[in-house]
C-alpha cells in the first residue's frame, strides 16, 4: 500500500485541481465522468504501473477501449445488488 500512495495523491491533486478550474470558471462538471477517469488513473498506475492521465486527456485510446469493452459496468445485477 505505501507504494500506491504517491500515485493516489497525484491523481487526487489532479482531481481537486480540475474541480477548482471548473469552479473558477463557473462551469458545470460531469462528476460521474471525472470520477471514472480518476479511478482509471489510480488503477492504471497502481495495478499496471502506467500513467494514463485520463483526467486531463479523456481521449486516451486505452481509456476509450476500456469503456468500449465494459460499456455497462454500472448497470448489471451485481452493481445494483451492492447498492441496496
TrEMBL record:
Coiled coil: none annotated. This is Cytochrome P450. Keywords: Monooxygenase, Oxidoreductase. One of its GO terms (molecular function) is iron ion binding.
